[in-house]
Design a protein that fits this description.
The protein is α+β, with helices and mostly antiparallel strands. Helices cover about 40% and strands about 30% of the residues. The chain has one domain.
C-alpha cells in the first residue's frame, strides 16, 4: 500500500485509519485471529496517531504505523 499512489491518495482524501494485514495469503480464521491479537495495539495506535493513517498488522498481531497525519513515516513506528 505505501508504494501504490492511488491507494495512498484514497486514504489521504478519505481521512481514515486504514489497518491492513501484511500478508494476503492467510485463511479467514487466521486473519480474524491476527486482528484479535492486535486489538490493543490498534486501539493504542488510534489514540496516538492522527488520521489519515496506514497501519500494517502481522499474522502474529504486531502493529506498525506506516503513515500518520497523511505523511509517510521515514521509519515505521512499532506499537508495543
Amino acid at each position: 500500500m505505501r508504494h501504490n499512489a492511488l491507494e495512498l491518495a484514497a486514504i489521504r482524501t478519505s481521512g481514515v485509519a486504514c489497518f491492513s494485514l501484511g500478508h494476503g495469503n492467510l485463511k479467514a480464521e487466521q486473519m480474524a485471529q491476527a486482528f484479535i491479537a492486535a486489538r490493543r495495539r490498534m486501539e493504542k495506535t488510534l489514540r496516538r496517531f492522527n488520521p489519515p493513517t496506514t497501519v500494517s498488522v502481522t499474522a502474529t498481531g504486531h502493529v506498525r504505523v506506516l503513515m500518520a497525519a497523511g505523511q509517510l513515516l521515514a521509519q515505521p513506528k512499532y506499537i508495543k
